[in-house]
Design goal:
CATH class: Alpha Beta
Structural class: alpha+beta
CATH topology: tt1808, chain A
Number of domains: 1
Radius of gyration: 16 Å
Strand order of the largest sheet: 4-7-9-10-11-12
Distance between the termini: 15 Å
CATH superfamily: tt1808, chain A
Strand content: 25-35%
Helix content: 10-25%
Length: 196
């Protein structure tokens, strides 16, 4: 992942204290942050390329899921992977699909692991998405996790099998990448990366 050389890398920084979901709820609404094991990270504003990719993947998923029980969402939407008294992990994936309505019951966000998550890499979040969130999503039971690299125009797809992710790599030439957890759904990566 190449850096764009801009100032945005500096803004997505780790904050220095330990926090819980209660702290997260008390923060101002205009300050987007994620919590991972009690560590807070400020979120930078996405780039145009990032937003174009999110829009295209979301659009394809939305079209496929229209009228079906699974629902697709786009950030910002909080996901509490381990909702309990000591809850200290709240993430905001770029795109997520939830098939269990009970996980949406509180009306504030998702409580529990989504079925499918897509993270689009930014220079400021790439390491966290590739390593920390990969491990977090795997341990939490996210059934499928995609990482999209805007610079290299590649996508890494991970399917959960017996508690571990198994991965496949795709590039912009793939026009029908299957979404393993959504029977019959494919994403056209040629269209996803077009114009980026």
């Amino acid at each position: 992942m190449r850096s764009n050389g801009g100032d945005c890398v500096e803004t997505a920084r780790k904050l220095n204290e330990r926090y819980t979901y209660a702290d997260y709820c008390a923060w101002p609404e205009d300050e987007r942050r994620e919590l991972i094991d009690g560590e807070a990270y400020a979120l930078a504003t996405p780039t145009i390329a990032h937003q174009m990719i999110v829009r295209e993947v979301f659009g394809q998923l939305y079209s496929y899921l229209r009228g079906k029980p699974c629902k697709v969402f786009v950030a910002p939407l909080s996901v509490r992977l381990n909702a309990d008294e000591g809850d200290d992990t709240v993430v905001e994936p770029d795109i997520l699909v939830v098939c269990d309505e009970q996980k949406l019951a509180d009306g504030k966000g998702v409580v529990g692991a989504p079925d499918f998550i897509v993270e689009v890499l930014s220079p400021s979040t790439a390491k966290r998405d590739i390593f920390r969130k990969y491990a977090l999503y795997q341990a939490s039971g996210v059934r499928e996790y995609w990482i999209v690299d805007t610079e290299e125009k590649i996508m890494m797809a991970y399917l959960l099998y017996e508690g571990r992710y198994s991965g496949s790599l795709y590039d912009e030439s793939h026009d029908a990448v299957p979404v393993g957890v959504l029977d019959g759904c494919t994403i056209n990566l040629t269209e996803v990366f077009m114009g980026v």
